[in-house]
Amino acid sequence: MRVLGIESSCDETGAAVYDDKLGLLAHALHTQIPMHAEYGGVVPELASRDHIKRVVPLVRQVTAQAGMQLKDYDAIAYTAGPGLIGALLVGAMAARSLAYALNIPAIPVHHMEGHLLAPLLDDPKPSFPFVALLVSGGHTMLIKVSAPGDYELLGQSVDDAVGEAFDKTAKLLGLPYPGGPYLEKLAQGGDLKAYHFPRPMVDRPNLDFSFAGLKTAVLNAVHQAKDDGHYDDKVRSDIAACFTQAVCETLVKKCARALEQCGLNTLVAAGGVSANSAIRQGLSALMAKRGGQVFFARKEFCTDNGAMIAQAGMLRFKAGVRAGLKVDVFPRWPLDTLEAL
Ligand code: KG4
Ligand code: ZN
């Protein structure tokens, strides 16, 4: 069986073909980043308009890449939320209409479930149950994953998402949007002892996160360096490295606590920020120390993509999940309201 997956929740249009026996057959992505970079962030209306232009050509491209025709699909999956309403509607409309025309089911997929299961696109795959750390531009969550669809929220950010903290800190350091990957480069070679930024909420017993205080500490460090007249590339690199270290330690401590609490020793890290090498190293070191295992998605599947939607769509298709004829999208959609498959 083959599922076409369409992603359009934010600033990337993705399409992919997933086969239940062979896995991923084809995937393609169009990123709008250069278009939004000029404005320093995503402009929702521009995003929607661009998705309209890209979605059909991308579907054609992956269908050809997979050596298929449209009539060969068994179902069409699409991101139904959370995300920008206009952007979501484009992918949902395209998927729902095409499925109707082909007389096959349309399958709504939760974007964060797509991220969470993205590490299953490659081998070795994590086995259930596990603890998932979801770190993206809009979310920071720790989740107990008992089975596909069975998600218990253990903790989340009470203010900024980690990706947002990376992007805001990057902007402060004069880096382009979205800053995460640029900040990672700038941090290389930075002195980890130059600054000690707060590790927010690590002493609290719960599994929630907060990154607003860290952002303020970085802001103060930048102002101080400017006032002292020594704000240069070395200082920027040191700040980037120490910021990353503070985020990394916070994530590691909370992951360790979540694993303890659940009595589990398998960790999955997913979402855009899980592409960060320092964070991957920190989590890998934690799991090596615990004698457990950690799984990441391949770097291109950490950020938004169609492959993760096609894969989650296949799981849901097989479990009998179907979209109605009315096109519904859910800009806000808590992950733990999904039902176990
Ligand atoms: O998962 P994603 O593509 O989109 C959302 O669903 O939000 O995540 C995007 C976020 C952005 O904040 C971006 O700066 C961050 O992930 N990101 C990174 C890295 N690559 C992407 N943050 C830190 N280091 C990276 N290498
Ligand atoms: Zn995402």
Automatic annotation (TrEMBL):
PROSITE patterns attached to this UniProt entry: GLYCOPROTEASE
Annotated function: Required for the formation of a threonylcarbamoyl group on adenosine at position 37 (t(6)A37) in tRNAs that read codons beginning with adenine. Is involved in the transfer of the threonylcarbamoyl moiety of threonylcarbamoyl-AMP (TC-AMP) to the N6 group of A37, together with TsaE and TsaB. TsaD likely plays a direct catalytic role in this reaction.
Domain of life: Bacteria
Enzyme Commission number: 2.3.1.234
Binding site for substrate: L134, V135, S136, G137, G138, D167, G180, E184, N276
EC category name: transferase
Recorded name of the encoding gene: tsaD
Protein name: tRNA N6-adenosine threonylcarbamoyltransferase
Pfam family, one: TsaD
GO term, biological process aspect, one: tRNA threonylcarbamoyladenosine modification
SUPFAM superfamilies with a match to the protein in the record: Actin-like ATPase domain
Keyword Cytoplasm: yes
Essential cofactor(s): Fe(2+)
Cofactor note: Binds 1 Fe(2+) ion per subunit.
Assigned protein family: Belongs to the KAE1 / TsaD family.
Binding-site residues, Fe cation: H111, H115, D304
Compartments where located: Cytoplasm
Reaction(s) the record says it catalyses: L-threonylcarbamoyladenylate + adenosine(37) in tRNA = N(6)-L-threonylcarbamoyladenosine(37) in tRNA + AMP + H(+)
Organism: Candidatus Anaerobiospirillum merdipullorum
Keyword Repressor (UniProt): no
GO MF annotations, alphabetized: iron ion binding; tRNA N(6)-L-threonylcarbamoyladenine synthase activity
UniProt cross-references to CDD domains, sorted A to Z: ASKHA_NBD_TsaD_bac (cd24133)
